[in-house]
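The data layer described in this paper is built around a simple, fixed record for each protein. Such a record has a labelled line for the sequence and another for the backbone structure tokens. For reference, a complete record is included directly beneath this paragraph.
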Amino acid sequence: MLLFCLLLIGLASWQSCTTKEGTVAFANPTFGGLDVVSTVDSARIFIDGRDSGLKTPALFTDIPSGMRKIEVLAPGFSLAVDNVEVVEGEVSRLELDLSALPETATLVFESDPAGALVLFNDLPVGFTPLTLENVSTGEQHITLYKGGRQVIRETVQLSAGQQLTVQRTLQPFRHVLVEHLSNTNCIPCPEADDIIERLLEEVGLDSATSIAYHPNYPGENDPFFLASADDVLPRIEFYGVPPIPFVLLDGIKPSTLFNLEENMRNGFTERFAEPPAATLEILDFNDSFTAFSELRGRIRITALENLGGDVFLRVGLIERFIAFPPNEPPGTNGDTEFKDVFRAFSPTAEGTAVSLGAGETVDIEFDFTPGAGWGEDLHVVAFLQRDTDREILQSVWSLIQE
């Protein structure tokens, strides 16, 4: 069911919604309760594909209202899946039936380095080294994910009683950051945005990330600028207030709408050939179900070469997809759908100075306070940038599956 959402920023108001996998959520979420029980106790509970941290039976009190996908998993039983509507101020109850598996197998995961997140049939089930006992036989989909390294995605075939060991080396890998400028009153911007999104899908979301900054030109009333002006303006000034549409790959490969597709393809090829200077991992955020009011976590930086004092870690938050009603565009260019919209930096656009020797590691915490009009489809984008020449040395984002 389509619910239109009221978004208020400054003195302007309009209806806006955010969507994810066919669901629609109020821009400022309301909350309800959810009581989850299953025919087998101690089954792990996943909410919208993320680990809730609890097992059945469990009572949740702060679930965003709307349709939620609930999955419960227990060794020796088939996965149980259902959708439930969480109603504001009410406690919904969901009962799930777990069926015993006639045949099972065992999966052992090992990785070099250790600590890779394991997704089993798209569900985050733990970190390597990890053993999963009494899992389903037949075709199973597995993913090994560790920020700043190549993602391993494979399909394995399991037979009854089999123990299969999946042992993989995760090589350092450059993740390219695409920063681009857009505005709801910029006539050529929708065309550029479409090209950017298409090429991101072409190279793969495991390999590249996008941030769409909305400056105050050509229209000062762009709602996304009004919602993030304090963080957007310093970023635009950092790049010298370029004309829009404007696209940068890793801070140093500029492209305009003219020959944008060809320039971006060439830029990706060049940047992927450059070895990364570090690996970046987002911890305590992307594998677990995160309350809307608790947008926090850590960025782990491991230097692969010496990182000098002119290197800064910047941690941003984007909203993956925002859709307005078809006949109510927020600007004059007619666009009603927006991807990877920038929301905020933590702590500021200036970032945090980083100085590490090769092989050294540091954890830096981040924390976002939800703003007016933010939806649920929020993702962290972190990147290391050398400010002297603006080159981005490595980036990572919290989107693992889509």
